[in-house]
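Q: Two folds, back to back.
A: First:
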Amino acid sequence: MKESIKRCENCGSDYNPPQPCGMCTESIVRNRRQGKIGRGATAADQPVKVIFRIWPKKQGGDVIALFPGLAGTNEIATCSSYQTVGQHGAADLHGLCSSLRLATAAEYASLKAELERIGYNLKVATRATAADRRARLEQVR
Protein backbone atom coordinates (compact mmCIF):
# COMPACT_ATOMS: atom_id res chain seq x y z
CA MET A 1 0.00 0.00 0.00
CA LYS A 2 1.34 3.41 -0.97
CA GLU A 3 1.87 6.03 1.77
CA SER A 4 -0.10 9.25 1.40
CA ILE A 5 2.17 12.27 1.88
CA LYS A 6 0.50 15.66 2.34
CA ARG A 7 1.80 19.19 2.67
CA CYS A 8 0.81 21.08 5.83
CA GLU A 9 -1.37 24.10 5.04
CA ASN A 10 0.16 26.05 7.92
CA CYS A 11 3.93 25.55 7.59
CA GLY A 12 4.39 23.70 4.29
CA SER A 13 6.09 20.64 5.85
CA ASP A 14 5.39 17.17 4.49
CA TYR A 15 3.62 14.70 6.79
CA ASN A 16 1.84 11.34 6.69
CA PRO A 17 -1.90 11.50 7.50
CA PRO A 18 -3.66 10.69 9.74
CA GLN A 19 -0.78 12.02 11.87
CA PRO A 20 -0.83 15.85 12.06
CA CYS A 21 2.15 17.95 11.04
CA GLY A 22 4.69 17.68 13.86
CA MET A 23 6.14 21.20 13.50
CA CYS A 24 2.81 22.99 13.75
CA THR A 25 1.24 20.69 16.30
CA GLU A 26 4.12 21.10 18.73
CA SER A 27 4.19 24.89 18.52
CA ILE A 28 0.39 25.28 18.65
CA VAL A 29 -0.01 22.94 21.65
CA ARG A 30 2.90 24.59 23.47
CA ASN A 31 1.52 28.10 22.82
CA ARG A 32 -2.00 27.07 23.90
CA ARG A 33 -0.64 25.63 27.14
CA GLN A 34 1.19 28.89 27.79
CA GLY A 35 -1.96 30.92 27.04
CA LYS A 36 -0.39 32.65 24.04
CA ILE A 37 -3.11 31.53 21.61
CA GLY A 38 -6.65 30.25 22.15
CA ARG A 39 -8.54 27.32 20.68
CA GLY A 40 -9.11 27.63 16.96
CA ALA A 41 -6.07 29.85 16.52
CA THR A 42 -3.03 28.74 14.58
CA ALA A 43 0.63 29.53 15.03
CA ALA A 44 0.31 31.80 11.98
CA ASP A 45 -2.00 34.14 13.92
CA GLN A 46 0.86 35.27 16.17
CA PRO A 47 3.72 37.50 14.97
CA VAL A 48 7.01 35.60 15.04
CA LYS A 49 10.31 37.38 15.54
CA VAL A 50 12.83 36.44 12.85
CA ILE A 51 16.48 37.27 12.23
CA PHE A 52 17.77 36.75 8.70
CA ARG A 53 21.44 35.80 8.39
CA ILE A 54 23.43 34.81 5.32
CA TRP A 55 26.03 32.07 4.88
CA PRO A 56 29.36 33.00 3.26
CA LYS A 57 29.59 32.45 -0.51
CA LYS A 58 32.02 29.55 -0.01
CA GLN A 59 29.31 27.81 2.08
CA GLY A 60 26.55 28.40 -0.47
CA GLY A 61 25.54 31.98 0.27
CA ASP A 62 22.01 30.94 1.32
CA VAL A 63 19.88 32.98 3.69
CA ILE A 64 18.72 31.36 6.93
CA ALA A 65 15.79 32.55 9.05
CA LEU A 66 16.38 32.22 12.79
CA PHE A 67 13.43 32.36 15.19
CA PRO A 68 15.07 33.43 18.48
CA GLY A 69 11.88 33.12 20.53
CA LEU A 70 11.13 29.53 19.45
CA ALA A 71 13.11 26.64 20.93
CA GLY A 72 14.76 24.37 18.38
CA THR A 73 15.35 21.39 20.70
CA ASN A 74 15.39 20.80 24.44
CA GLU A 75 18.68 22.72 24.59
CA ILE A 76 18.23 26.38 25.57
CA ALA A 77 21.00 27.47 23.16
CA THR A 78 19.06 26.30 20.10
CA CYS A 79 16.28 28.05 18.25
CA SER A 80 14.03 27.07 15.37
CA SER A 81 15.26 27.96 11.91
CA TYR A 82 14.17 27.76 8.29
CA GLN A 83 16.05 27.61 5.01
CA THR A 84 14.70 27.07 1.52
CA VAL A 85 16.83 23.93 1.27
CA GLY A 86 16.21 21.75 4.30
CA GLN A 87 13.31 23.85 5.56
CA HIS A 88 12.60 23.67 9.33
CA GLY A 89 15.33 22.69 11.75
CA ALA A 90 17.15 23.58 14.94
CA ALA A 91 20.08 26.00 14.97
CA ASP A 92 22.73 27.21 17.39
CA LEU A 93 21.48 30.78 17.77
CA HIS A 94 24.58 32.32 19.35
CA GLY A 95 26.97 30.45 17.06
CA LEU A 96 25.22 31.48 13.87
CA CYS A 97 24.60 35.07 14.94
CA SER A 98 28.27 35.49 15.78
CA SER A 99 29.60 33.81 12.63
CA LEU A 100 27.11 34.89 9.94
CA ARG A 101 26.42 38.44 8.85
CA LEU A 102 22.97 40.00 8.78
CA ALA A 103 21.23 39.60 5.43
CA THR A 104 20.08 42.76 3.69
CA ALA A 105 16.39 43.25 2.85
CA ALA A 106 17.14 42.46 -0.80
CA GLU A 107 18.97 39.25 0.17
CA TYR A 108 16.22 37.91 2.43
CA ALA A 109 13.22 39.09 0.38
CA SER A 110 12.55 35.74 -1.31
CA LEU A 111 12.88 33.73 1.92
CA LYS A 112 10.63 36.18 3.74
CA ALA A 113 8.02 35.85 0.96
CA GLU A 114 8.26 32.04 1.17
CA LEU A 115 7.71 32.07 4.93
CA GLU A 116 4.74 34.42 4.61
CA ARG A 117 3.30 32.26 1.84
CA ILE A 118 3.33 29.20 4.14
CA GLY A 119 1.58 31.13 6.90
CA TYR A 120 4.12 32.98 9.03
CA ASN A 121 3.32 36.47 10.33
CA LEU A 122 6.89 37.81 10.60
CA LYS A 123 8.42 40.55 12.71
CA VAL A 124 11.94 41.15 11.33
CA ALA A 125 14.64 41.90 13.91
CA THR A 126 18.41 42.27 13.86
CA ARG A 127 19.35 40.64 17.16
CA ALA A 128 18.16 38.24 19.83
CA THR A 129 17.33 39.57 23.29
CA ALA A 130 17.16 38.25 26.85
CA ALA A 131 13.36 38.05 26.42
CA ASP A 132 13.88 35.61 23.53
CA ARG A 133 16.10 33.44 25.73
CA ARG A 134 13.46 33.47 28.51
CA ALA A 135 10.79 32.42 25.97
CA ARG A 136 12.95 29.48 24.82
CA LEU A 137 13.65 28.53 28.44
CA GLU A 138 9.90 28.39 29.19
CA GLN A 139 9.34 26.20 26.13
CA VAL A 140 11.98 23.62 27.12
CA ARG A 141 10.92 23.31 30.75
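A: Second:
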Amino acid sequence: MNVTLGDNLNLPKLVDAALSRDEARRGNRQDQNGTTSTSTSTSKKSKTSKGKNVAILSDNWTSPSSGLNHRDPNFLSDSFPRSPPKLYVSAEVDTDTGSDNEFDLGTLADWAAEGFNVSFLPLNPKNVEGYISSLRKLHHDKALGPCETFGIIAFGEAASLCLEHYHVLDNNSGLKLGCLIGYYPTRIPDPGTRFPSAIKVVVHLPVGEVGVVKHSQMVGIQGKRRVVKGNVDRGVGVGGLLNMGYEAWAYEQVESGFAEQDLDEYDGICAELAWARSLKAARRAFGMAGDGEGVVDMNSQGEFFFFFFFLVPPLLSLGPILFFFFCCFADKKAC
Protein backbone atom coordinates (compact mmCIF):
# COMPACT_ATOMS: atom_id res chain seq x y z
CA MET A 1 0.00 0.00 0.00
CA ASN A 2 1.45 3.35 -1.01
CA VAL A 3 -0.09 6.36 0.72
CA THR A 4 1.52 9.68 -0.18
CA LEU A 5 1.02 12.73 1.97
CA GLY A 6 -0.95 15.30 0.06
CA ASP A 7 -3.25 12.78 -1.60
CA ASN A 8 -6.94 13.26 -0.80
CA LEU A 9 -8.10 9.77 0.13
CA ASN A 10 -11.74 9.09 0.88
CA LEU A 11 -11.86 5.29 0.96
CA PRO A 12 -13.70 3.80 3.95
CA LYS A 13 -11.35 2.39 6.60
CA LEU A 14 -8.36 2.32 4.24
CA VAL A 15 -6.12 4.70 6.17
CA ASP A 16 -7.33 3.39 9.55
CA ALA A 17 -6.32 -0.12 8.53
CA ALA A 18 -2.70 0.91 8.00
CA LEU A 19 -2.05 3.90 10.24
CA SER A 20 -2.23 4.19 14.01
CA ARG A 21 -4.66 6.41 15.85
CA ASP A 22 -1.84 8.81 16.79
CA GLU A 23 -0.65 9.06 13.18
CA ALA A 24 -4.17 9.69 11.91
CA ARG A 25 -4.74 12.42 14.48
CA ARG A 26 -1.43 14.04 13.63
CA GLY A 27 -2.42 13.98 9.97
CA ASN A 28 -5.69 15.75 10.81
CA ARG A 29 -3.85 18.43 12.80
CA GLN A 30 -1.48 19.01 9.91
CA ASP A 31 -4.46 19.24 7.59
CA GLN A 32 -5.86 22.07 9.73
CA ASN A 33 -2.52 23.88 9.51
CA GLY A 34 -2.55 23.61 5.76
CA THR A 35 0.52 21.39 5.50
CA THR A 36 -1.06 18.17 4.32
CA SER A 37 -4.47 16.89 3.33
CA THR A 38 -5.39 13.37 4.40
CA SER A 39 -9.01 12.53 5.23
CA THR A 40 -11.09 9.50 6.01
CA SER A 41 -14.80 8.88 5.95
CA THR A 42 -14.94 7.63 9.50
CA SER A 43 -14.43 9.58 12.72
CA LYS A 44 -13.98 6.60 15.03
CA LYS A 45 -10.41 5.37 15.44
CA SER A 46 -9.42 1.88 16.39
CA LYS A 47 -8.41 1.64 20.04
CA THR A 48 -5.91 -1.14 19.51
CA SER A 49 -3.51 -2.33 16.87
CA LYS A 50 -5.09 -5.77 16.70
CA GLY A 51 -6.04 -6.68 13.18
CA LYS A 52 -3.96 -3.97 11.53
CA ASN A 53 -1.90 -5.99 9.08
CA VAL A 54 -1.93 -4.00 5.85
CA ALA A 55 1.47 -4.55 4.25
CA ILE A 56 3.68 -1.52 3.66
CA LEU A 57 5.06 -1.36 0.13
CA SER A 58 6.32 2.23 0.32
CA ASP A 59 6.41 4.53 3.34
CA ASN A 60 7.08 8.27 3.22
CA TRP A 61 4.96 9.04 6.26
CA THR A 62 7.73 8.47 8.82
CA SER A 63 10.78 8.73 6.58
CA PRO A 64 13.45 11.34 7.45
CA SER A 65 12.64 13.35 4.31
CA SER A 66 9.04 13.87 5.44
CA GLY A 67 10.11 15.72 8.60
CA LEU A 68 7.37 14.01 10.61
CA ASN A 69 9.59 11.75 12.72
CA HIS A 70 10.53 13.90 15.73
CA ARG A 71 12.41 10.88 17.12
CA ASP A 72 15.00 11.08 14.35
CA PRO A 73 18.42 11.38 16.09
CA ASN A 74 19.35 14.18 13.71
CA PHE A 75 16.31 16.24 14.75
CA LEU A 76 18.31 17.95 17.50
CA SER A 77 21.75 19.53 17.25
CA ASP A 78 24.87 17.56 18.13
CA SER A 79 25.42 19.79 21.17
CA PHE A 80 22.12 18.72 22.74
CA PRO A 81 22.81 16.53 25.83
CA ARG A 82 22.01 12.88 25.18
CA SER A 83 21.91 9.76 27.29
CA PRO A 84 23.62 6.54 26.16
CA PRO A 85 21.33 4.87 23.59
CA LYS A 86 19.04 2.27 25.16
CA LEU A 87 19.44 -1.23 23.74
CA TYR A 88 17.48 -4.35 24.67
CA VAL A 89 18.98 -7.75 23.93
CA SER A 90 16.27 -10.39 23.82
CA ALA A 91 16.42 -14.17 23.68
CA GLU A 92 14.63 -17.26 24.93
CA VAL A 93 15.44 -18.42 28.47
CA ASP A 94 15.08 -21.72 30.24
CA THR A 95 11.58 -21.92 31.70
CA ASP A 96 12.78 -24.21 34.48
CA THR A 97 15.50 -21.97 35.89
CA GLY A 98 14.25 -18.64 34.55
CA SER A 99 17.85 -17.43 34.69
CA ASP A 100 18.93 -14.62 32.37
CA ASN A 101 22.59 -15.59 32.85
CA GLU A 102 22.27 -18.49 30.43
CA PHE A 103 22.45 -16.08 27.49
CA ASP A 104 25.86 -15.22 26.04
CA LEU A 105 27.21 -12.61 28.46
CA GLY A 106 29.95 -11.74 25.98
CA THR A 107 27.34 -10.32 23.58
CA LEU A 108 25.92 -8.07 26.30
CA ALA A 109 29.41 -6.90 27.25
CA ASP A 110 30.36 -6.16 23.63
CA TRP A 111 27.35 -3.89 23.11
CA ALA A 112 27.92 -2.15 26.44
CA ALA A 113 31.55 -1.52 25.43
CA GLU A 114 30.30 0.32 22.34
CA GLY A 115 28.56 2.91 24.52
CA PHE A 116 25.03 1.46 24.71
CA ASN A 117 22.88 1.15 27.81
CA VAL A 118 22.16 -2.57 27.57
CA SER A 119 19.36 -4.51 29.26
CA PHE A 120 18.29 -8.10 28.76
CA LEU A 121 14.68 -8.87 27.80
CA PRO A 122 13.91 -12.57 28.37
CA LEU A 123 11.39 -14.60 26.39
CA ASN A 124 9.48 -17.31 28.18
CA PRO A 125 8.28 -19.59 25.35
CA LYS A 126 5.33 -20.64 27.51
CA ASN A 127 4.11 -17.04 27.85
CA VAL A 128 4.26 -15.38 24.45
CA GLU A 129 1.44 -12.95 25.31
CA GLY A 130 3.42 -11.78 28.31
CA TYR A 131 6.43 -11.16 26.05
CA ILE A 132 4.36 -9.09 23.59
CA SER A 133 3.02 -7.12 26.56
CA SER A 134 6.61 -6.44 27.62
CA LEU A 135 7.39 -5.11 24.14
CA ARG A 136 4.49 -2.66 24.40
CA LYS A 137 5.68 -1.44 27.80
CA LEU A 138 9.07 -0.48 26.36
CA HIS A 139 7.42 2.44 24.56
CA HIS A 140 6.31 3.94 27.89
CA ASP A 141 9.76 4.04 29.47
CA LYS A 142 9.98 7.45 31.14
CA ALA A 143 13.77 7.28 31.05
CA LEU A 144 13.72 8.11 27.34
CA GLY A 145 14.32 11.80 26.80
CA PRO A 146 13.13 14.09 23.98
CA CYS A 147 13.81 12.65 20.53
CA GLU A 148 15.38 9.52 22.10
CA THR A 149 14.67 6.06 20.80
CA PHE A 150 15.58 2.53 21.80
CA GLY A 151 16.74 -0.53 19.90
CA ILE A 152 16.15 -4.28 20.11
CA ILE A 153 18.56 -7.07 19.21
CA ALA A 154 16.70 -10.37 19.28
CA PHE A 155 17.84 -13.95 18.79
CA GLY A 156 15.92 -17.01 17.59
CA GLU A 157 12.24 -17.14 18.50
CA ALA A 158 12.45 -13.71 20.13
CA ALA A 159 13.59 -12.32 16.77
CA SER A 160 10.62 -13.97 15.04
CA LEU A 161 8.16 -12.38 17.47
CA CYS A 162 9.77 -8.93 17.34
CA LEU A 163 9.92 -8.85 13.54
CA GLU A 164 6.29 -9.86 13.18
CA HIS A 165 5.13 -7.47 15.92
CA TYR A 166 6.92 -4.37 14.66
CA HIS A 167 6.10 -5.09 11.03
CA VAL A 168 2.78 -3.45 11.93
CA LEU A 169 3.12 0.35 11.96
CA ASP A 170 0.68 0.82 14.83
CA ASN A 171 2.85 -1.24 17.20
CA ASN A 172 5.67 1.32 17.18
CA SER A 173 3.90 3.75 19.48
CA GLY A 174 5.41 7.23 19.34
CA LEU A 175 7.99 6.01 16.82
CA LYS A 176 10.24 5.16 19.78
CA LEU A 177 11.73 1.99 18.31
CA GLY A 178 14.55 3.10 16.05
CA CYS A 179 16.49 -0.12 15.49
CA LEU A 180 15.52 -3.79 15.24
CA ILE A 181 18.14 -6.46 14.56
CA GLY A 182 17.15 -10.10 14.29
CA TYR A 183 19.48 -13.10 14.41
CA TYR A 184 18.34 -16.37 12.82
CA PRO A 185 14.57 -16.03 13.31
CA THR A 186 12.49 -19.07 12.43
CA ARG A 187 9.88 -16.82 10.76
CA ILE A 188 10.22 -13.56 8.86
CA PRO A 189 7.66 -11.08 7.47
CA ASP A 190 6.82 -11.23 3.77
CA PRO A 191 10.09 -10.33 1.94
CA GLY A 192 8.07 -8.35 -0.61
CA THR A 193 6.94 -5.84 2.02
CA ARG A 194 8.74 -3.19 4.02
CA PHE A 195 9.01 -2.16 7.63
CA PRO A 196 7.97 1.36 8.68
CA SER A 197 10.85 3.60 7.68
CA ALA A 198 11.25 4.92 11.25
CA ILE A 199 12.78 1.53 12.13
CA LYS A 200 16.21 0.47 10.90
CA VAL A 201 15.89 -3.29 10.38
CA VAL A 202 18.65 -5.85 9.81
CA VAL A 203 18.08 -9.61 9.72
CA HIS A 204 20.81 -12.29 9.79
CA LEU A 205 19.76 -15.65 8.33
CA PRO A 206 21.54 -18.97 7.78
CA VAL A 207 21.19 -20.31 4.26
CA GLY A 208 18.33 -22.80 4.19
CA GLU A 209 14.64 -22.99 4.99
CA VAL A 210 12.71 -20.30 6.88
CA GLY A 211 9.06 -19.61 7.59
CA VAL A 212 7.44 -16.63 5.83
CA VAL A 213 4.47 -14.89 7.47
CA LYS A 214 1.85 -13.75 4.98
CA HIS A 215 -1.47 -11.97 5.40
CA SER A 216 -4.29 -11.73 2.89
CA GLN A 217 -4.70 -8.07 1.96
CA MET A 218 -8.27 -6.74 2.18
CA VAL A 219 -9.15 -3.07 2.68
CA GLY A 220 -10.39 -2.48 6.22
CA ILE A 221 -10.81 -6.20 6.92
CA GLN A 222 -8.49 -8.35 8.95
CA GLY A 223 -6.74 -10.87 6.71
CA LYS A 224 -5.85 -14.40 7.73
CA ARG A 225 -2.35 -15.07 8.95
CA ARG A 226 -0.52 -18.00 7.46
CA VAL A 227 3.07 -19.22 7.51
CA VAL A 228 4.53 -20.71 4.34
CA LYS A 229 7.92 -22.26 3.71
CA GLY A 230 10.57 -20.06 2.18
CA ASN A 231 14.16 -20.58 1.13
CA VAL A 232 17.15 -18.40 1.99
CA ASP A 233 19.66 -18.44 -0.85
CA ARG A 234 23.31 -17.37 -0.84
CA GLY A 235 22.52 -13.74 -1.59
CA VAL A 236 24.46 -11.32 -3.77
CA GLY A 237 28.20 -10.71 -3.63
CA VAL A 238 30.77 -11.78 -1.07
CA GLY A 239 28.61 -10.54 1.81
CA GLY A 240 25.39 -12.41 0.94
CA LEU A 241 22.92 -9.50 0.69
CA LEU A 242 19.39 -10.79 0.07
CA ASN A 243 16.90 -9.18 -2.30
CA MET A 244 14.15 -8.29 0.18
CA GLY A 245 12.02 -5.31 1.12
CA TYR A 246 14.17 -4.90 4.23
CA GLU A 247 17.88 -5.43 4.86
CA ALA A 248 18.73 -9.10 5.29
CA TRP A 249 21.95 -11.07 4.99
CA ALA A 250 22.59 -14.77 4.35
CA TYR A 251 25.42 -16.82 5.85
CA GLU A 252 26.57 -20.10 4.35
CA GLN A 253 27.51 -23.31 6.16
CA VAL A 254 26.31 -22.10 9.56
CA GLU A 255 23.38 -22.93 11.81
CA SER A 256 21.20 -20.94 14.19
CA GLY A 257 23.38 -19.84 17.08
CA PHE A 258 26.43 -18.95 14.97
CA ALA A 259 26.71 -15.52 16.62
CA GLU A 260 26.73 -16.70 20.26
CA GLN A 261 30.13 -17.61 21.61
CA ASP A 262 28.82 -19.96 24.29
CA LEU A 263 27.13 -22.28 21.78
CA ASP A 264 28.63 -25.14 19.77
CA GLU A 265 27.20 -23.59 16.58
CA TYR A 266 29.37 -20.50 17.00
CA ASP A 267 31.23 -19.47 13.82
CA GLY A 268 33.84 -16.79 14.34
CA ILE A 269 34.00 -15.42 10.79
CA CYS A 270 30.23 -15.14 10.24
CA ALA A 271 29.73 -13.84 13.78
CA GLU A 272 32.27 -11.06 13.23
CA LEU A 273 30.70 -10.07 9.93
CA ALA A 274 27.18 -10.06 11.39
CA TRP A 275 28.41 -8.08 14.40
CA ALA A 276 29.92 -5.38 12.19
CA ARG A 277 26.68 -5.07 10.18
CA SER A 278 24.59 -4.91 13.34
CA LEU A 279 26.85 -2.30 14.90
CA LYS A 280 26.69 -0.20 11.75
CA ALA A 281 22.88 -0.33 11.76
CA ALA A 282 22.66 0.58 15.45
CA ARG A 283 25.05 3.50 15.06
CA ARG A 284 23.10 4.85 12.12
CA ALA A 285 19.80 4.49 13.95
CA PHE A 286 21.10 6.42 16.97
CA GLY A 287 23.10 8.97 15.00
CA MET A 288 26.47 7.71 16.24
CA ALA A 289 29.69 8.00 14.25
CA GLY A 290 31.66 5.07 12.92
CA ASP A 291 31.30 2.33 10.32
CA GLY A 292 32.69 -1.03 11.34
CA GLU A 293 31.12 -3.08 8.56
CA GLY A 294 33.15 -1.42 5.83
CA VAL A 295 36.39 -2.39 7.55
CA VAL A 296 35.28 -6.00 8.04
CA ASP A 297 34.03 -6.29 4.45
CA MET A 298 37.30 -4.87 3.13
CA ASN A 299 39.28 -7.31 5.26
CA SER A 300 37.14 -10.25 4.10
CA GLN A 301 37.46 -9.31 0.44
CA GLY A 302 41.17 -8.63 0.90
CA GLU A 303 41.71 -12.12 2.31
CA PHE A 304 39.77 -13.61 -0.60
CA PHE A 305 41.72 -11.76 -3.30
CA PHE A 306 45.05 -12.38 -1.56
CA PHE A 307 44.37 -16.12 -1.55
CA PHE A 308 43.12 -16.15 -5.14
CA PHE A 309 45.82 -14.03 -6.76
CA PHE A 310 48.88 -14.77 -4.63
CA LEU A 311 48.49 -18.31 -3.33
CA VAL A 312 46.56 -20.12 -6.04
CA PRO A 313 49.00 -19.45 -8.96
CA PRO A 314 52.05 -20.94 -7.15
CA LEU A 315 50.01 -23.98 -6.19
CA LEU A 316 48.94 -24.44 -9.80
CA SER A 317 52.53 -24.17 -11.02
CA LEU A 318 53.55 -26.93 -8.61
CA GLY A 319 50.88 -29.24 -9.98
CA PRO A 320 52.99 -30.90 -12.74
CA ILE A 321 55.93 -31.39 -10.37
CA LEU A 322 53.76 -33.01 -7.71
CA PHE A 323 52.16 -35.21 -10.35
CA PHE A 324 55.62 -36.32 -11.55
CA PHE A 325 56.76 -37.36 -8.07
CA PHE A 326 53.46 -39.12 -7.48
CA CYS A 327 53.96 -41.20 -10.61
CA CYS A 328 57.52 -42.06 -9.57
CA PHE A 329 56.46 -43.39 -6.18
CA ALA A 330 53.43 -45.17 -7.59
CA ASP A 331 55.25 -46.96 -10.32
CA LYS A 332 58.99 -46.67 -10.80
CA LYS A 333 58.62 -47.68 -14.44
CA ALA A 334 56.74 -44.49 -15.14
CA CYS A 335 60.01 -42.62 -14.71
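Q: And?
A: The chain has three domains: 1-47, 54-290, 294-334.
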